[in-house]
């Protein structure tokens, strides 16, 4: 090797729900660059033969479509950095795959085409994807390598980034030019029905390493896609990466056929029902804590996180010893701060971020405690998040200034809350993350209203390709029948 290959590090990550009235902009994204970005990828140290140059990565909590001005500014900045810092041998891209810019479509396709136009055809582009990302022909045409998570919950997120980097390193060092096969599979299901914690997704994903070995591939991915984006590219997909076009294509067909053959077996992995049914079921359970997913308003799927519907039903049913974690409402947090700990006050909760899917709820609350904690979307984030824990009848509610998922028990403990002390815990989440799964004596999923309503068949899709399973349940399909989103 005559010179150390130069690899740019960049990325954009935001799962965008097109059914949400929210817009994701400057206040939602955290831009990381330079040493801070490089430090987020410890596996880079495994490749001393490559010269990594950290550029810019923008990352936001899932939410609504991205504001066009923010996207155009980010894209221009990244293209400038690529153009000024080149020439490049490779670009490592940390993407999600379900970003959407308001008024546009196929954001990743647009961004990758622009990157390709800047770095030229010989540079290798390798992207790490979320398995809930949506792929398009334009995405594939402008990438050399795409690899996606193989677990949901995504416990392998770092491993996937590491794999995207290792594949790129190998191709650069051995001067390989990979080929990819892409088969969109017309299945569109929510993550809650396709978790790899249970069948059929567990077996389907578990067989990927064997598929790679048997077809002598570099990599293979199965993408469930993102159901709450009404775009032509929203669909399940298979992507294989190899050095031989015929075997790469044959493997993609195998995996696509396997996915399609199992379509009727996907179902929710935990007991599911209306909010009232799930509350009634939780109250009958003798062991605690029962963890209820308020799934329609899950901020980590793109929901606003400010729908008070479940809280309203808990109050209606006079449920006690319950924790609601949490509800995003910045004005209510401020009112609690002004009133102080111990004060009782009237609040109109929720429905401010997503008035389309939520009605405010009028309550009388007692302020139990006030907190200011780091809003830890990335380690280098310096933004803070004010919170108030309030008591509303028998229920404690965490009110948050920013949209906040509660995925870690330490985040509850930091507020002085002992999760084991409650009979019921309500979280704005779909399938439970590992720490909550372990905590829960039972997990129940409430089909609650919100922008990421699990009753997706009722949603007003106008742009996705049809027929699509399960919306058109009786449809037939063969992997050779290529649709090209
Ligand atoms: Zn995901």
Number of domains: 2
Helical coverage, percent range? 25-40%
- As laid out across the biggest beta sheet, the strand order is 12-20-13-19-14-18-17-16-15
Bound molecules: zinc ion
Shape descriptor reads globular
Largest sheet: 9 strands, mixed
Number-wise, the strands total: 20
Percent strand equals 15-25%
Counting copies of identical and different chains, the oligomeric state is single chain
- Report how far apart the termini are: 39 Å
**What would you call the structural class?**
alpha/beta
Descriptive tags:
485 residues, single chain, alpha/beta, globular
Question: Any overview of this molecule?
Answer:
The chain has two domains: 6-265, no CATH class; 272-453, no CATH class. The chain has 13 helices and 20 strands. The chain has helices at 34-39, 68-85, 107-119, 137-142, 157-173, 201-206, 208-214, 245-261, 275-284, 309-316, 330-339, 409-413, 434-439, and strands at residues 6-13, 23-24, 30-33, 51-59, 65-66, 90-95, 124-129, 145-148, 179-185, 219-223, 236-242, 272-273, 290-294, 322-328, 344-349, 361-374, 384-392, 395-400, 424-427, 442-446. The strands form four sheets. It has a nine-stranded mixed β-sheet with strand order 12-20-13-19-14-18-17-16-15. A six-stranded mixed β-sheet has the order 3-4-1-6-7-8, sandwiched between helices. Helix 2 (68-85) runs parallel beside helix 3. Zinc ion binds next to loops.
